[in-house]
Structure formats: structure tokens, C-alpha cells
Automatic annotation (TrEMBL):
It holds the Pfam family TRAPPC-Trs85. Residues 698-838 form the TPPC8 second Ig-like domain. Coiled coil: none annotated. GO terms for cellular component: TRAPPIII protein complex. Residues 470-697 form the TPPC8 first Ig-like domain. InterPro entries: Ig_TPPC8_1st, Ig_TPPC8_2nd, Ig_TPPC8_3rd, Ig_TPPC8_C, TPR-like_helical_dom_sf, TRAPP_III_complex_Trs85. Residues 1080-1182 form the TPPC8 C-terminal Ig-like domain. This is Trafficking protein particle complex subunit 8 isoform X3. It comes from Bos indicus (Zebu).
Length: 1206
């Protein structure tokens, strides 16, 4: 048995050695059809083996010897995709059946361990006793034969060649060698014997001897022009030189290059050339010569075989990435080329793999066009391989990146994406809606509005502006509205702001406080503004666009039932959803969509996102891509293809930065603008302004009407309005007597309450009184908060009421924005929403009218008609600053009124014959009035709010200044003063403190007098003459200081040098100033204006003069009267004249509070002339003070006397 096995193995070995060369040529042309199928175009091995009587299926080294089933071939069953997709793949039925039959056979299953040991021992003994000695013997025999045979044949051959052709054999070109590529040697040829010996040496790893033999055979083959044999010898010689231990000679790369060129160009055998290239590339890579290997691989690529070129390009790409300095971009580029060739060869999986590997390099590097191409190819290949998720992901990346492709290319990408997405959605039609990548949604810019849209203006009716999505967010304005709401809420809660108060927010955006759940009212719409952006150059058409929401209703029983609805069909019961049928976004356009929800039940609402159909318009690619498409605004578009999907609204809250942990980490708070809580019904107020002006003169009074409508099903109460400009408007007094009738019932359609007077009352003032409490303004009150006088204080559902509103133009010219905030409550108290508000912003443009200046000074006359002291003179300057741009012809000053607690205007001093004072443009008028203190019964205490009004009229009609609207605007102009509680004066008679005395002295210079100038202006507008009315206020607080009706511009303070030292005394002295102390005493000289004296009879003229001293303060004052002339120069004598005072020259007095004292003096004159008697000097000081101050009263007005001689 062992002898027979040895014979069989010997025969097999001999045949292997003899046909080593042929085995390199066995590879068939079908290799190009696929990488897995290799067949043979020659059956030399099977023929040789059959001659020995062996079966064709005899296995060598455990592998089948028939090349119909190559040992490296993949199982067709495991690669079904290649077998299906390969267009050039040839199916072999017998091969498939053979592998299927062999797949169920297990070889060697019956061998025992002893059999394994015997086989191992047999192979070892066979190798050392049989195989190696046999090879050694064969090599020796071949060597001997070659020496004898080759010497004789070569000498004869060379002699013959020299005889016939000379000593030098000319070389042949490549074209001439083509006809020798098919030369065949007989088996006993010496050249093949050398090749056989070289192969044996190569098998036993005797590479040095093998290289010599291959080199010798190569020369012989070249001499015989056997190029196929020569290329094989060159190839093996190069391999032998590379495998020699110790590397005695360098690797002959040019051998491989010559072999490759021979295989490719002469022999036309690309399979052998490919094998040689792969072998040479591996050798170069092992030596680290990746650049040469890559160049060698790329050189063999051609157009005749896509599969071979793809394989070589892929290997070249790996050479680039394995260099010492990797060439990453060359790697990616050649991987893309390889993927392209794989795709042409039908190898879809290999193509997809190459493109995916190249994508790792190009991703995120800014090569957008390359990324688009790769993603597009990956998407198509994945779709071909039925990897739909990968295809969708690849096409999605094309669309979400900022693509630089043309409009046509982007349109193609979008259509491919929609087509793939539609196939994916058809696989699972009942599954969840997929996330769509287009258009972009800026979630942080999402705005939510609670409430109805603003009604447009209807004729003269103008609706309140309130809050809308059309208004831009302004942080300063938002803070003003918040302060107004806080102010009115604190007034309603008796001056205390509730701890759980939160400002009402009707519009939520990225700037608002979204940390709490917003409150919405049932049956009131919720509008969500979603910001879309189309990044493509082709228009996008969204159809059936609506919101996606989840609602959790709450019932009275307390049971919660969560209801999730994604698509609303039919009439909804809980939440109504508005659907936009078509929403077009043009190329590269940002556009907002406003989607509405209508809650019909209380509960918790969660807005999840938007759902829509994404599609393109037919023929949209042909459009420029920038302008709108024809017919875009018609609402009718033809969709080429669309898919149903959704996009979620995920809003990131603000970053937290309060605690130390939040500052050191990145944490974000919640944003709950899309999670409103639906509450019970609340009243809803709408406000309309009728005949509301847009332009006024400064100080002009205009009457308008306000209509309040309750459009809800709940009654409202507690209506109030708050504004930072309470002096701009009024609803009239609290009593019906104070409020005039409507303009239609009034004479001359005046906004004022007027009374016809007779001509005898124009010289003196008409006195009336009113309390500021009747006009909603008192000590400690909030004049900015005004209660709206509703009938019965309740507005029923569906009811409306019209109320008059008087407006006064601001004193500054320009454009004014005046904010009104209406506050109201529900009759039925709600736990979550306690009140509601309505905002309105009025824009008024004012133009110049009149400027009023006024001063007050003490009168020299100490007594009035009633014998009482304390008179003052009021000078009023009125200037017409209007430049007729508003069509104003002239202004008429119709009345000047005063309002004060202690003073009143008594009469006009310079009343001319023309009772109606007219002022044309740029004209100025001056008025002088006498003011007296009120009577004892009219004088009120400091804490009282009663004011005395005195009207001096310049016409036949008196405007009742103590009634609305004149008194309203007067009190509101004083609102800042009236808010401060007045300090009560101390009434005890004991010794007063320094602070009290100082206050008393300061009050001597203070006066509480307010001047109101009422006027009319005649305007020509549209050939019609209109009469405008208005009033200006001047507040007089200090004697001798000029006051203005318009605000003065404050000049910036001058720069001062910095002081780098601490002052010694930082306390502020509470003592009054010298100017204040100088006005403690009021002086008056009573004397005859002309005195006749006979100087020829008596040379001295004595004139009696009375000096009246009045203490203007409520403190005791020490007075020193010095009658000596203060003459230090001759000029002073000329001014005062030559007269002298007779008698006592100095008096010391003490005046009690408000005391008047008279001194009888005598003046002596020596000749006639005009003399100034105002020479007495008066000094005053407080009784408990040391410093003495000189009064300045006597120098204010000269006291002239005329001395005549008779």
C-alpha cells in the first residue's frame, strides 16, 4: 500500500515540475468577467494527468486540480448581489452543482488520531527520503545534461550564424518581435531544461542558483526571440533576486518593467501582465517604495477592462495612504476613480465601498462640490443595492449642506431625493412620519402669539394697536409696558405688588421670559410663526402645512386623558388646526408661516412641530432661480412629486449662569413657549378711537371719543388706563357738573365749559374753586392710573360704550409715542389669570404754537383795596413761535387764569382798549397782573386739596378753568408735585429748631402760584376756517425767578478739575442763602409825589415820609434801619441829590411774624429838584442768629419826589 502511494506521489511531483511554466499560462480570459470566476483556456494539466491513468479530480495539497473550480473563488450563494448585478457574469451550472454537492461532504471525518500521526510521519519521511533526494538528483542530472548538450549545440549554432550573418546579430524592434510571441519549444529543448532547473532551485529556496539559471534562460529566450518565455524568465529572475537572503544584489525593478511591457505590448496577455504588476507592487511596497508601486499600478489601467482598472486603482490608492507622509487627497481621488470603474464593471458593492472610504476624506473639508458628487453616487448605489436608509441619508446630506451647485443640478438632486423617499415611505405606509430636511427651520426664531388678530381701521374708527406679530421686539418698549402693568396692579392691590405677579405676555419670542408655562384662553386662537429658509436655488412648495400637537385635556372631575393627534381630520373636538393648502418658498428665500390652533377645551397643549408635503414645481428648473416663478401668487401650482413628512420644533432655552456650578458648566434652562396651558374663559376687551388726531399744536386741546367693546361671553369690570404721560389725555372729572356737554350741544363747538359774561366783569377776576381729588389726583395718589368711568362699572358681554376723551398736545414739538395700557378684570375671579391688559401706542406729531414766560415779584404797595398786605405783580410774556406751517393765521389770548392754594390773580394792570389780544407769527405780547392772597375763608390748610381758580378774560366768554378739561390738564401738569406729600409747618410757639427756621426763611421766597394761558387759533384747512383751542401752564415757585411753559434744554455742566483730596467738611450747611435772607423784610416809602415849598420865605424844606416795614416770614426778625447816606464819592452825591434825613439816624426794631411796622421820617431839602428818597438801608437778621444781611428791596424801584418852589 505504501509503495503504491509513493509511486503516485512521485508521478504527481514529476508532472508538477515539468509543467511549471505552463501553469503560469493556465489563467483564462474569463477572469476579466468577474473577480470570482477563473477558468482555463488550456487543458494541458488534465491531459497530462489522464495519461497516467489518474482521475481528473485527484487533489494536490488538498486542493482540486481542475481549474474550473478555482480554490480562491467565492461562493456564489454568499454573494447574491454580485451574481445579480454583474452584467457580464457567466453562470456555470456544473460549477454551482459541484460546489453544492461538495458543500455537504466532510473530508477526513473517519480518521483517528493514529491515522493523523501516521500521515504526518509519512509526509516527513517522504520529504526527507524521497522528495528532496529526488530533486537533488534531478538538478544534478539536468546540470550535467545542459553542460554537455548546450556546449555542442551552441558552438554549431553560433558558427552558423557567424558564417551566414556576420559576427553581430542586429536587434529587433518591438514591432518586429510580435511574430515570435507564439514560438513553442519541445520538452527536450535545452532552454526549457534550464528553466526547469531554475524552477526546482526556486522550489527548494536556492534563490542564488535559481537567479543564475533564470538569467541564463532569459538570454537564450531573447536570442531565440521567444518573448513569452523571456518575460517569464525575467519575472522569476526578479523575484529570485528579491528573495535572496542578505540581498547580495539590488532588486532589478527594470526586469519587472520589461516583463510587464512584454506581456502587455508583445504578447497581448493582460492577465499575465496584471499578475506581474501585482507581484512587483507587493515587492516595492515591502521595500517602502509606495510611490513607485502606485505609479506601476496606475500605468496598467486601461479602458479595455473596467474591473482590472478598478482593482489597480484601489491598490494604488492604498499605496498613497501608506506613504511615510500620507497623500490623503490622492488616496481619496483614486478611490473615487476605482469606485467609478467598479460601477462600470457592475460591482456595485465594491463601488459603494470605495465611495464611502473616499467620503471620509472629503467630509467637512469645504469641498462642497466633491461632497455633493460623492453623496449623490453613494445614494444611487445604495438605492440600487436596496439599502434605502443609506440612500436617503446620502441624498439628505446633499440638500442640507450649503450647496454651490447650479439650479438645474440642485433640482435633479431634489427629485432624486423625493423619489427615493417616496419608495421608502411606501415600504411602511403606517409608520411614523419621517423627518424632512427641507426647508430649514430656525427654531429659535419661532414666535407664539395668543389672541385674535388686530382689526383694521374702519373709517374714523381706529382700533387699539395692542400686540401683533408684525411688531418688532424692542427691549426698551417691553420694559416700559412691564412697568406700566406693575404700576396699575400695585394700585389695584392698594400699593402692594403681589408676590406671584408675572407680567402678561401675549407674544413669546427668543427675548421673552419663557421659563414658565404660558397661559392661553379657551376659544382664543394661538398663532405660531415658523421661520422657514430655502437654501436651494429652486423653489420649494409646501402643501397641507399645519402644526403637529399633543393635547392633554383636563376635566372638572380631575381625570386626565392624554390625547395625541398628529393629523387632524374632520371637525376636531379639542383643538382646531388651521391648514395652509399651499406655501411657496422661492429660491434662497427666508419666509415665515403663521399657523393657528383653536383650543376648545381646557388642558395642557404641547406644540411638537410642523407637518407638510414637500415637493417641487414642474418646470421650476428652467426659471432663473432668483425671481419668483410665474403664477407663484395665484395659489395654484402643479406638483411634480411630493412626500409627506414632518419637522420638529426643538427650541434650546437660555444658558444658565446663576450658580457657580452653572457658570463652570454648560447648562441650558427650559423654553416653554410651545407648551401653553389652556385656561377657562376670560373677558376680552376691544378699544376703538374715534376722531383721534395724528397732529396737534403744542398745548392744543382736542376732543375725541373712545369706544369700549366687550367681545367675549364674560362681563368685565375694573377698567383702568395707565400711561407715563397722564398730562396728554383725560376722561373728565368724577362729577357730572365738572364735565361739559358733548361738542354738538356746546356753543361754537368748544371743548371747554364756557359761560357768557357781561362787559363789566372783564377788569376783575372771576373766582371759583375745585379740589384735585375730584379730578383723580391727590396727595400720595398715582396720577398715571386713571379709572375709566364705565356705567355701573361693568361692561356686559357684547356691550359697547362710548366715552369722551380730551387730548392736549405735548409742550415739545416733534413726534411723540404715547403708550396706553388698559387694565380690566373678570367679574368671576379666575385662579390663574387675575386680569387682562390691552395695549395701545398713539403717535402724535406736534408743531410749535406759543411760548409763555412768567415772573412774579413783590409789589411796593403794601395794602390792597381791602387794607391787607401781601400783593405781588405777575408778568406774563407770550410769544407766537408758529411759522404758519400748519396753516395757523394768528393766535388770540382769550383768558389768563391762576390756580393756587394761597394766591389768586386780582386784575390786569395793563388792560388796553383792545380786549382780544392777537398775536401774529413771531409776535410777542406782555401782560401784567396783580396777585393777592386769598381771603381767610379761602385760605386752606396745607393738607387740603382745594385750589382757588381766578379767571381774567379778554372776551365775552369765560372758560371755567375749574371744570374739565382745563382743570384736568392743569392738575396733571402738576402731578409730579402733587404726588409728594407736603410737610406740615410746625405750630408750636416754643423755640424753633434750626431746620424749622431755615424752612420758614426759604418760604419767604417761595410762592405757590400757577398761571394758565388759554388761547384760540384760526386755521384755514381745505378752504374752511377752523378754530383750535389750547392752554399753556406756567408754574411759579420762586419770587424773581423766570418760569417757562416749555421744558428748557439743560446745558451740559462744565468740566471741572478732579480733586484728589478729601474735603475737610463734607456736611452741607442747612443755613439759607444770602439772597433768601435779604428778602426777609419788605420796605415801602409813602410820600407825596410833588411838594411845593416857598424857598424865598424859608430856606429849609421839611417833607414827612412814612417807612413801612413788613416781616415776610413767620419768624421773629431783628431790623436795623440806617438813614445815613452811603456816600464815598462825589458821584454818589449827584445821584442822591443834596438832601438829608432829620432826627434819629438809626432805628433798631424787632418784628414779629407777619408784622407790619411804620416809621415816621423827615427829609430836609435846601433847593428845588427831583430827589430819590430810596436811600435808607435796612439790615435784618433772625432773632437767634448773629449774621446780619442787608435787604435789597429798596433798590428794586426808585422813590422819586419833586420839590417845587412857589
Amino acid at each position: 500500500m505504501e509503495l503504491r502511494v509513493a509511486i503516485y506521489l512521485k508521478l504527481i511531483l514529476e508532472h508538477l515540475i515539468e509543467h511549471q511554466m505552463n501553469r503560469y499560462q493556465i489563467l483564462g480570459e474569463s477572469y476579466e468577467d468577474g473577480p470570482c470566476t477563473i477558468t482555463s483556456n488550456k487543458n494541458s494539466d488534465s491531459n497530462l494527468l489522464s495519461l497516467d491513468g489518474l482521475d481528473n479530480e485527484v487533489k494536490v495539497d488538498g486542493l482540486p486540480n481542475n481549474f474550473r473550480a478555482h480554490p480562491l473563488q467565492l461562493d456564489p450563494s454568499s454573494d447574491s448581489s454580485n451574481s445579480i448585478d454583474g452584467p457580464d457574469h457567466v453562470k456555470s451550472t456544473s460549477l454551482h452543482e459541484t460546489k453544492k454537492a461538495n458543500a455537504g461532504i466532510i473530508h477526513g471525518a473517519c480518521l483517528t488520531l493514529t491515522d493523523h500521526d501516521r500521515i504526518r510521519q509519512f509526509i516527513q519521511e517522504f520529504t526527507f527520503r524521497g522528495l528532496l533526494p529526488h530533486i537533488e538528483k534531478t538538478i544534478r542530472q539536468l546540470n550535467d545534461q545542459l553542460i554537455s548538450r548546450k556546449g555542442l549545440s551552441r558552438s554549431l549554432f553560433s558558427a552558423t550564424k557567424k558564417w551566414f550573418s556576420g559576427s553581430k546579430v542586429p536587434e529587433k524592434s518591438v514591432n518586429e518581435l510580435k511574430n515570435t510571441s507564439g514560438l513553442l519549444y519541445p520538452p527536450e529543448a535545452p532552454e526549457l531544461q534550464i528553466r526547469k532547473m531554475a524552477d526546482l532551485c526556486f522550489l527548494v529556496q536556492h534563490y542564488d542558483l535559481a537567479y543564475s539559471c533564470y538569467h541564463t534562460a532569459k538570454k537564450d529566450f531573447l536570442n531565440d526571440q521567444a518573448m513569452l518565455y523571456a518575460a517569464g524568465a525575467l519575472e522569476m529572475a526578479a523575484v529570485s533576486a528579491f528573495l535572496q537572503p542578505g540581498a547580495p544584489r539590488p532588486y532589478p525593478a527594470h526586469y519587472m518593467d520589461t516583463a510587464i511591457q512584454t506581456y502587455r505590448d508583445i504578447c497581448k496577455n493582460m492577465v499575465l501582465a496584471e499578475r506581474c504588476v501585482l507581484l512587483s507592487a507587493e515587492i516595492l511596497k515591502s521595500q517602502g517604495k509606495y510611490s513607485e508601486a502606485a505609479a506601476l499600478l496606475i500605468r496598467l489601467t486601461s479602458e479595455d477592462s473596467d474591473l482590472r482598472s478598478a482593482l489597480l486603482l484601489e491598490q494604488a490608492a492604498h499605496c498613497f495612504i501608506n506613504m511615510k507622509s500620507p497623500m490623503v487627497r490622492k488616496y481619496a481621488f483614486h478611490m473615487i476613480l476605482a469606485g467609478h470603474r467598479f460601477s462600470k464593471a457592475g460591482q456595485k458593492k465594491h463601488a459603494l465601498r470605495c465611495y464611502c472610504q473616499a467620503m471620509q476624506v472629503y467630509k467637512g473639508k469645504g469641498w462642497s462640490l466633491a461632497e455633493d458628487h460623492i453623496n449623490f453616487t453613494i445614494g444611487r448605489q445604495s438605492y440600487t443595492l436596496r439599502q434605502l436608509d443609506n440612500a436617503v441619508s446620502a441624498f439628505r446630506h446633499i440638500l442640507i449642506n450649503e450647496s454651490k451647485q447650479s439650479a438645474a443640478q440642485q433640482g435633479a438632486f431634489l427629485r432624486e431625493y423625493l423619489y427615493v423617499y417616496k419608495n421608502v415611505s411606501q415600504l411602511s405606509p403606517d409608520g411614523p412620519l419621517p423627518q424632512l430636511p427641507l426647508p430649514y427651520i430656525n427654531s429659535s426664531a419661532t414666535r407664539v402669539f395668543f389672541g385674535h388678530d388686530r382689526r383694521p381701521a374702519d373709517g374714523e374708527k381706529q382700533a387699539a394697536t395692542h400686540v401683533s406679530l408684525d411688531q418688532e421686539y424692542d427691549s426698551e418698549s417691553s420694559q416700559q409696558w412691564r412697568e406700566l402693568e406693575e404700576q396699575v396692579v400695585s394700585v389695584v392691590n392698594r400699593g402692594v405688588l403681589p408676590s406671584n405677579f408675572h407680567p402678561t405676555q401675549y407674544c413669546l419670542n427668543s427675548y421673552s421670559d419663557n421659563s414658565r408655562f404660558p397661559l392661553a384662553v379657551v376659544e382664543e386662537p394661538i398663532t405660531v410663526e415658523v421661520a422657514f429658509r430655502n437654501p436651494l436655488k429652486v423653489p420649494l412648495l409646501l402643501t397641507d402645512l399645519s402644526l403637529l400637537w399633543k393635547f392633554q385635556p383636563k376635566y372638572v372631575s380631575g381625570k386626565d386623558n392624554e390625547e395625541v393627534k398628529e393629523l387632524v381630520k374632520g371637525e376636531p373636538e379639542m383643538i382646531g388646526t388651521e391648514v395652509i393648502s399651499e406655501f411657496l418658498i422661492n429660491s434662497e428665500e427666508s419666509k415665515v408661516a403663521r399657523l393657528k390652533l383653536f383650543p376648545h377645551h381646557i388642558g395642557e397643549l404641547h406644540i411638537l412641530g410642523v407637518v407638510y408635503n414637500l415637493g417641487t414645481i414642474q418646470g421650476s428648473v428652467a426659471v432663473d432661480g432668483i425671481g419668483a416663478l410665474p403664477g407663484c401668487h395665484t395659489g395654484k401650482h402643479s406638483l411634480s412629486m411630493s412626500v409627506r413628512g414632518r419637522q420638529d420644533l426643538e427650541i434650546q432655552g437660555p444658558r444658565l449662569n446663576n450658580t457657580k456650578e452653572e457658570k463652570t458648566s454648560i447648562k441650558y434652562g427650559p423654553d416653554r413657549r410651545l407648551d401653553p396651558i389652556i385656561t377657562e374663559e376670560m373677558p376680552l376687551l376691544e378699544v376703538f378711537f374715534i376722531h383721534f388726531p395724528t397732529g396737534l399744536l403744542c398745548g392744543e386741546i382736542r376732543k375725541a371719543y373712545v369706544e369700549f367693546v366687550n367681545v367675549s361671553k364674560c362681563p368685565l369690570t375694573g377698567l383702568k388706563v395707565v400711561s407715563k404721560r397722564p398730562e396728554f389725555f383725560t376722561f373728565g372729572g368724577n362729577t357730572a357738573v365738572l364735565t361739559p356737554l358733548s361738542p354738538s350741544a356746546s356753543e361754537n363747538c368748544s371743548a371747554y365749559k364756557t359761560v357768557v359774561t357781561d362787559s363789566t366783569s372783564v377788569c376783575t377776576a372771576l373766582v371759583s374753586s375745585a379740589s384735585s381729588v375730584d379730578f383723580g389726583i391727590g396727595i400720595g395718589s398715582q396720577p398715571e392710573v386713571i379709572s375709566v368711568p364705565l356705567p355701573d362699572t361693568v361692561l356686559l358681554p357684547g356691550a359697547s360704550v362710548q366715552l369722551p376723551m380730551w387730548l392736549r398736545g405735548p409742550d415739545e414739538e416733534g413726534v411723540h409715542e404715547i403708550n396706553f395700557l388698559f387694565y380690566y378684570e373678570s367679574v368671576k375671579k379666575q385662579p390663574k389669570i387675575r386680569h387682562r391688559i390691552l395695549r395701545h401706542t398713539a403717535v402724535i406729531c406736534t408743531s410749535r404754537s406759543l411760548n409763555v414766560r412768567a415772573t412774579v415779584c413783590r409789589s411796593n404797595s403794601l395794602e390792597d383795596e381791602e387794607g391787607r398786605g401781601g400783593n405781588m405783580l405777575v408778568f406774563v410774556d407770550v410769544e407766537n413761535t408758529n411759522t404758519s406751517e400748519a396753516g395757523v393765521k394768528e393766535f388770540h389770548i382769550v383768558q389768563v387764569s391762576s390756580s393756587s392754594r394761597h394766591w389768586k390773580l386780582q386784575k390786569s394792570v395793563n388792560l388796553s382798549e383792545n380786549k382780544d389780544a392777537k398775536l401774529a407769527s413771531r409776535e410777542k405780547g406782555k401782560f401784567c397782573f396783580k396777585a393777592t392772597q386769598c381771603k381767610e375763608e379761602e385760605v386752606v390748610t396745607e393738607v387740603s386739596e382745594k385750589y382757588t381758580f381766578a379767571d381774567i378774560i379778554f372776551g365775552n366768554e369765560q372758560i371755567v378753568s375749574s371744570a374739565s378739561p382745563c382743570a384736568d390738564f392743569f392738575y396733571r401738569s402738576l402731578s409730579s408735585e402733587l404726588k409728594k406729600p407736603q410737610a406740615q409747618s410746625s405750630v408750636h410757639t416754643g423755640k424753633q429748631s434750626v431746620e424749622d427756621v431755615t424752612k420758614l426763611i426759604q418760604k419767604c421766597n417761595e410762592v405757590d402760584l400757577n398761571i394758565v394761558v388759554l388761547w384760540k387759533a384760526y386755521v384755514v384747512e381745505d378752504s374752511k376756517q377752523l378754530i383750535l383751542e389750547g392752554q399753556h401752564h406756567v408754574v411759579l415757585r420762586t419770587i424773581g425767578k423766570e418760569a417757562f411753559s416749555y421744558p428748557q434744554k439743560q446745558e451740559p455742566p462744565e468740566m471741572e478739575l478732579l480733586k484728589f483730596f478729601r474735603p475737610e467738611n463734607t456736611t452741607v450747611s442747612s443755613r439759607p442763602s444770602a439772597e433768601q435772607l435779604s428778602n426777609l423784610i419788605k420796605t415801602s416809602l409813602h410820600y407825596p409825589e410833588s411838594f411845593n415849598h416857598p424857598f424865598h420865605q424859608k430856606s429849609l424844606c421839611l417833607v414827612p415820609v412814612t417807612l413801612l416795614l413788613s416781616n415776610c416770614s413767620k419768624a421773629d426778625v431783628d431790623v436795623i434801619v440806617d438813614l445815613r447816606h452811603k456816600t464815598t464819592s462825589p458821584e454818589a452825591l449827584e445821584i442822591h441829590g443834596s438832601f438829608t434825613w432829620l432826627g434819629q439816624t438809626q432805628y433798631k426794631l424787632q418784628l414779629k411774624s407777619q408784622e407790619i411796622h411804620s416809621l415816621q421820617l423827615k427829609a430836609c431839602f435846601v433847593h428845588t429838584g427831583v430827589y430819590n428818597l430810596g436811600t435808607p438801608r435796612v439790615f435784618a437778621k433772625l432773632s437767634d442768629q448773629v449774621t446780619v444781611f442787608e435787604t435789597s428791596q429798596q433798590s428794586s424801584m426808585p422813590a422819586l419826589i419833586i420839590i417845587n418852589n412857589v
